Amino acid sequence: MKIFRRSVAGLLTTVALVTSLTACVTNSETGNPEGWQVVKPAANPQVQALVPADIKQRGYLTMGTNPPFAPMEFKSDTGEIIGVDVDLARAAAAVMGLELKVQEQDFNLILPSISGNTLDFGATGMTDNEERQKSYDFVDYLSAGVQWTAQTGHEVDPNNACGLTVAVQKGTVSETDDVAPKSEACVAAGQPPIKVLSYELSDQAATAVVLGRADAASMDSPVTAFAIARADGRLQPVGEMFDAADYGWPVKKGSDLAPALQAALQHLIDTGDYQKILKPWGIDQGLKEKATVNGN
């Protein structure tokens, strides 16, 4: 699996269309999306019984996250960290009878902070992979991959994109592991290469598609879903999500917190709160029917 949390400067902070002579995508975000609501379920006694004693005694969980990586986590115009990861983790904490304390951290420091006992877990669009599983357990909560988008009504085949212009965010897997190899294959087959438009932010890549500067954009599936949800019907997914891997909540290897988080997540899935949390963010692919630890 080559899908992993992007570590570039920033991802989509919003996709809101502005109507003028042309429609464009901006990165101004005022807060949670339309239809969003607080989901804070009641504590479940069976799940509470699984919470480690020290955490239960203090009454809260500490969660590390690294905005911006919308819609998973980013800052509103008031500076509050919001997004899917925050909403889902807060609901899971409520099921466990706990409050959630969110701590912003550098992405590369989240795992060491868990090891150093300054964080209980992370929720930051981090991919569960074999290398990370050597030192941490992951409670998997969403399957994410690469998903292409194009203007509504414009059919594009991600597997037959020779000669097309494709927008990406600079330095992401979409650029290096998706579009670049496909372009090389086009040239090897005697076809024209894919013209790559590489942007600092993924909202700029989405804008390029809306304005017709690019035929399509390749982005992480949650990012694409968020763009489409904000695009007022002007963007559509094309092709299927591919190269999927799980986003997971990392905890210390062998920690008793993993089964507690797993049970809390399963409760959210069973009650429908999980789906209720994801829907306003435009995420309808990669949803879990069963909460797993390390994919099992």
TrEMBL record:
It comes from Corynebacterium epidermidicanis. SUPFAM superfamilies: Periplasmic binding protein-like II. SMART domains: PBPb. The lineage of its organism: Bacteria, Bacillati, Actinomycetota, Actinomycetes, Mycobacteriales. This is Solute-binding protein family 3/N-terminal domain-containing protein. Keywords: Signal. Coiled coil: none annotated. Residues 60-284 form the Solute-binding protein family 3/N-terminal domain. InterPro entries: Solute-binding_3/MltF_N. Residues 1-23 form the signal peptide.
